[in-house]
Write a structure and sequence with these properties.
Order of helices and strands: EEEHHEEHEEEEEE
Structural class: alpha+beta
Strand content: 25-35%
Helix content: 25-40%
Number of helices: 3
Oligomer: single chain
Shape: elongated
Distance between the termini: 73 Å
Strand order of the largest sheet: 6-5-4-8
Length: 194
């Protein structure tokens, strides 16, 4: 047998179990297989890679089932939460479920800027229809208060935004301390969780 890639003098020796092995410069060479340590290192690397990639694939799967309009809403809410932290401002998102219009104000705006934000508000696109908003503290809020606050410290109000696209009803969940906004593929109420 030859040592792969080496043109060094070879010797053959007999091991304790009676098999012959070839050695280069007196060092034994194993020309096939992996050691246990090598296998454990590879398994560790693959496990670590999967550990970090599974949540990403889960999020891709959830948003890939949503239409572009719903995915756009999810990104809008996530970006608003991030923008509040980056700009160090408190933002308030006002939602009018009757007209399906949303607009954002911050705590540094004067009355004219707030009126401009209302006039330039975003309307829902396509067949997307805003059903209603639900808060866990609905009993303490005025009935006409349909606003969600995003704070500069990185947290927000908890809210469920119920939307309908064609005949499919979905719930967008905004959690207080999570960066991601979750899409639930059915109408879910806070009362369902009790």
């Amino acid at each position: 047998m030859e040592c792969p890639g080496l043109s060094l003098p070879q010797t053959q020796s007999k091991s304790k179990n009676g098999s012959w092995s070839t050695a280069c410069l007196g060092l034994p060479i194993n020309c096939f297989g992996f050691t246990f340590v090598e296998l454990m290192v590879i398994i560790g690397i693959l496990t670590t890679t999967l550990l970090f990639s599974v949540p990403i694939f889960r999020q891709i799967h959830l948003t890939s089932e949503a239409s572009d309009h719903v995915s756009g809403m999810l990104l809008f809410f996530e970006n608003l939460k991030l923008r509040a932290m980056v700009e160090n401002k408190n933002f308030t998102l006002y939602v009018d479920s009757g007209s399906g219009k949303m607009y954002v104000v911050d705590d540094t705006m004067d009355e004219d800027a707030r009126q401009d934000a209302l006039n330039n508000g975003v309307s829902l696109n396509g067949d997307l229809q805003l059903l209603n908003l639900e808060f866990p503290d609905d009993n303490t809020r005025p009935r006409d208060d349909k606003s969600i606050c995003f704070f500069s410290k990185g947290y927000s109000d908890r809210a469920l935004i119920h939307v309908r696209e064609e005949s499919r009803e979905m719930t967008i969940q905004i959690c207080m301390f999570q960066k991601k906004v979750h899409l639930i593929d059915r109408y879910v109420s806070y009362d369902d969780c009790i």
